[in-house]
Amino acid sequence: MGVTTFLAQADELRAPAVDYGAVAPVLIVLGAACASVLFEAFLSKSQRWIGQVVLALITLVASGTALAIYAGDAPEQGTLTLSGALAVDRPVLFLWATLLLLSFGSILLIADRSVEPGGAFVAEAGVRPGTVQDRAQAAKSGMQTEVFPLTLFALGGMMVFVAANDLLTMFIALEVLSLPLYLMCGLARRRRLLSQEAAVKYFLLGAFASAFFLYGVALLYGYAGSVKLADIAAAAAGTNRSDTLLFAGFGLLVVGLLFKASVGPFHAWTPDVYQGAPTPVTAFMAACTKVAAFGGILRVLGIAFEATEWEWRGVLWGVAIASMLIGAVLGLTQTDVKRMIAYSSVAHAGFLLVGSIALTPEGLSGTLFYLLAYGFTTLAAFGVVSLVRDADGEATHLSQWAGLAKRSPVVAGVFTFLLLALAGIPLTSGFIGKFVVFSAAVQDGMAPLVVVALVASAVAAFFYLRVIVLMYFSEPAPDGPTVSVPGAFTTVAITLGAVITLVLGLWPAFVLDWAGAGAFIS
Amino acid sequence: MLDPYLPLVFMFALAGAFALFSVTAAPYIGPRRYNRAKLDAYECGIEPSPQPVVGGGRMPVAYYLTAMLFILFDIEMVFLYPFAVSADRLGLFGLVEIALFVATVGFAYAYVWRRGGLDWN
To answer: Looking at this predicted complex, what is its ipTM?
Structure first.
């Protein structure tokens, strides 16, 4: 026993088969993230910004092209690669495309230097807020270009996260996506203290959530003897083992996932972090992190815990109701537009959870569609928020938005459209998203939950409409904010978000077809 | 049954004997010259107390950077051990993988080096 047996096992080591075509989109993003670090190291200060922007945009286009080429003749039921660590199937391809598109918009917002001279990011993050050096650098036009490699690493982590087919790969991906985000939150040029506070809060709570996740993985390993999702499903389906480990592990695991998705009672970090983080980073987090987290939730629930659905469903009903009500009711009391959108995202997370726990093909495709639609709407909304400014930077207090339509009818019009989409008014993607998710839930026997969701939607619609009324029917304050004329990057990002919100509202069929093109492979 | 562990027991005994021998023999055969630095805590970097007067009792921030860089390479070493043990069995694939791994750590090192993380001041 002992050493000899171990060496005998080692003789059987074989390199895992890698389907390079399938994982090319991820490899391109992670490879470019490494190249981006080298750019930071070897480019001179004046070349960094342009070099990083070009690299990031080329990366996203190249990764998208690789994805399109692979999707063209990908196997219908999907494929497992890297010893089954990654599963590349139709839902994963859809999620990858969503992530790439959303991060394209986010990178444009991050790179923009027209609205705030030098961009929304601090030049030297090491300078303490409130010091002489801090005030001096507020006037400088430099920018912390490390945000680009951080974004690419986070994106790479998200892409692995949604494709991870075992819980350890998922955990590593969770950390790869989280650690850059913690840093990016603290990089705001204006309101440094608020930004750094947001970063610390996000980091501490995120570390707790990661610990919960990992503890859950440990218990599930104790139950199933494996961290692979399919093995956990097999163990849960045919066994007379005690369920204590399974459900304790499930509970802890799901807490970690729901935290990242800012669902319901696990949302406490969301308003503070959304408010404190630089607005382009908030846009990236609100759009892409949500997609990644729900991609993970869909896969874990749909594969590992499908057989035990009736045991845990009641709990997630409760979580979904809590999330929708917390988001809708607390959203009413907000006076800051970024915090308001944060609570709106909590409510939307509840709606998404309703679709996620309907483990039917309709539930899956509906949730995927909702993620795409919501991501673009919220991305564009934060893009608009970054335009309304006064002398101290962004004017996020709602009273400052009064009468905005008289100053800038176009920006107010676009924001109105986006708010209507968030509220779920017909002719916007928000309506179609809610419709497909709720109808999937009704078909799966969750009518009471859908009633609660509709009530929450109605309550939430009130605070969106309040902003619209404020913008159109109030007198503008005499020393109110001005609306900056956006440069090309921000214009493209906002237009992209608004146009996709409109197109998905009018002709959703082709995207719904893609979203429903296949099921998870395990 | 314990056969595979017998060499380990010998190794352990030998190591213990060597340490014991060195400690007991040193006072008798080595020269003794007094030096203040010799009474300091061995290999523990800075004195934990009292706090340094320079910089208002704060640790220099560069210390953390160096410490983190050390951990980075420490972890790299940990990963290199299992590779080195089974390098021949892993073949070319393993070599490429470990080269990529070392390269990514190298990127981080290049960044720290180029951006002045290794300059103490």
So the answer is: 0.83
